[in-house]
Design a protein that fits this description.
1 helix, three-stranded antiparallel sheet, mainly beta
């Protein structure tokens, strides 16, 4: 199953993610911000945890 996440920095929609494979880690396609998505959340609105912002 592919997932979608929203970048907490620029708001870009990240589609086609396999969050189980990456354990919730995502790098934004647009701004290179690294963030984590709570993969235990069962709704389509994921809660993103921004842990590093690209400069």
């Amino acid at each position: 199953m592919r997932d979608t996440a929203i970048c907490p920095n620029c708001g870009a929609e990240q589609k086609g993610l396999n969050l189980n494979e990456t354990k919730g880690s995502v790098v934004c396609y647009s701004c290179d911000t690294k963030f984590e998505v709570d993969i235990n959340e069962q709704t389509s609105n994921y809660q993103n945890k921004n842990y590093e912002t690209a400069e």
